[in-house]
Amino acid sequence: MQADHTGTEATRSKVFIAFQDNEESRAVIEAVLADNTEATAAYAPGLVKIDCPGRLVIRRESIEEITGQPYNLQQIQINLVTLSGHVNEDDDEFSLSWGR
Question: Which segment of the chain is annotated as a signal peptide (predicted)?
Answer without folding.
Answer: none
